[in-house]
Design a protein that fits this description.
Structural class: alpha+beta
Radius of gyration: 17 Å
Distance between the termini: 29 Å
Helix content: 10-25%
Number of strands: 3
Shape: extended
Low-confidence stretches: 4-9
Strand order of the largest sheet: 1-2-3
Number of helices: 2
Largest sheet: 3 strands, antiparallel
Mean pLDDT: 86
């Protein structure tokens, strides 16, 4: 699994050095905004629902509704690889972008 988007790493290299051609269809280039996620699992798969919660200006801390903008199903192995990649990326992000008092808490 590609762990980061550093310019020094070819994100399409597999651990054995094999190159994989990964394409992003034009309709996905803009991405999808999600500000909430729900995770569930069974014996054989994990499911992550990415959700866009909507808020009303009169109660900015209370969502009025939400819509699932993407559902991703994955194997337990991929879920563990995703956790590892997120941890590695978070550490790199925090080291560069977080104030020291937040990063070290």
């Amino acid at each position: 699994m590609a762990n980061n988007f550093d310019d020094n790493q070819d994100d399409n290299d597999m651990p054995d050095g094999h190159q994989v051609d990964i394409r992003l269809p034009p309709d996905l280039e803009g991405g999808t905004w999600a500000n909430f996620a729900m995770i569930s699992h069974s014996m054989h798969e994990f499911t992550i629902d990415f959700i866009r919660m909507n808020f009303d200006a009169s109660a900015p801390n209370l969502p009025t509704n939400g819509v699932v903008v993407q559902r991703v199903n994955m194997s337990p192995l991929l879920a563990q690889q995703l956790i590892d990649a997120l941890e590695q990326n978070w550490q790199g992000y925090a080291a560069k972008s977080m104030p020291p008092e937040i990063e070290n808490s």
